[in-house]
Description:
The protein has three domains: 13-129, no CATH class; 192-230, no CATH class; 234-406, von Willebrand factor, type A domain (Rossmann fold, 3-Layer(aba) Sandwich). It contains 15 helices and nine strands. 38% of the residues lie in helices and 12% in strands. The strands form two sheets. Strands 6-5-4-7-8-9 form a six-stranded mixed sheet. A three-stranded antiparallel sheet has the order 1-3-2, with no helix packed on it. α12 (338-351) links the parallel β7 and β8 (354-359). By secondary structure, the chain is of the alpha/beta class.
Amino acid sequence: MTSAGPLLPAVDRAAFAVAFAARLRERGVAVGLTATQDFVRALVAVPPLSRTALYWAARVTLVRRQPDLPRFDEVFDAVFGEALLSVDPHARRGGDRPAPHGGDARTQAPVDPYDVSDATGDRRGLPWVTLPPVVAQRDHRDDVALSVPDRLPSDLAGALDTPFEQLGAMEAQLLGRWLERALREWPTRRSRRYAVRPGGPRVAIRETAARARRTGWDPVHLVRTGPVARPRRVVVLCDVSRSMQAQAMAYLHLMRALALTTHAEVFAFATSLTRLTTALAHRSAQEALDEATERVADRFGGTRIAHCLSTLLGSHHGGTVRGAVVLIGSDGWDGDPPERLAVAMARLRRRAHTVIWLNPRAGVPGFVPRTTTMAAALPYVDLLLPADSFGALLRVPGEVARHARRS
Length: 407
């Protein structure tokens, strides 16, 4: 996932760019954070297939002043001593430099990029394998541990559309954090409160009179107000049965993201219903997921969707569904009769504003809901969306907003 191309196999682009920029700063080249970010984006947009391409990508993005070119060439030549493109300005105009020892550059054996030494013979290592600076100074005592800063993967965009069952625990945790930051926009509703807003339908008498004091009590400027938009309440019900074992942890990340950003009510269900709103609202993501996992005692078992929906609607939490956007994350396998699920979905549809069914199987090309459970629930569902990857979960708010505008 972090490979930058055949030239830099299995290389973290961010770590490589930061280390190379630090090497340039040591030689007096002014490299800022924006230039480093541009270098990373250049490596992502056009992965370098040769050292010549890497040289020009680094030079165009990292060097901003003409006097810094000689020092940049020195650093690049020290790191890539056997680069096909010489650091001699005349060689850059004339082509590739001759191969060492009088041989042909095109017939030379490939050089190991990790075996580089400078002119003095000091083996310094390439930037992507150079160890980060140690934060804590080492003491002579044996019980003092070194603290080394963590370096996380820089490219998570490629894992957005990866199915949940193919993601590791670390990737799922990082994408869960990304999901918490990305789900900031959600459909809103018109509240009864009014606030000052240009072009509003009402005239604010008090604010208009206060402004008229400056113009001899003549209301030259009318202050208008409009209704305040409030985020619509969200209720999430996620299936954690055995058939949803691969998607259960990702759906817990979705419930935590919605609980933190939209003040949603979240529930997990298998054979019974479990409220997880307070557990997933914990500041620590790992502790929140651990506590939620402990609370769900019937996970990875059977499924009773109709029974769990009836339990929610009959409890004191059933009022939270009124006027809310209800997300049901399940593959549709249910142990209850389809007639009972149809009755529960009809009750839910009368209370909720929008009912959305997130099905991980819906992302498969040619998907058709053939199970009796999904056939009984679909007449009461506004949107059936695929939810087999984190990228699909990120597209849910946009689909809900477009549906709200259409209706």
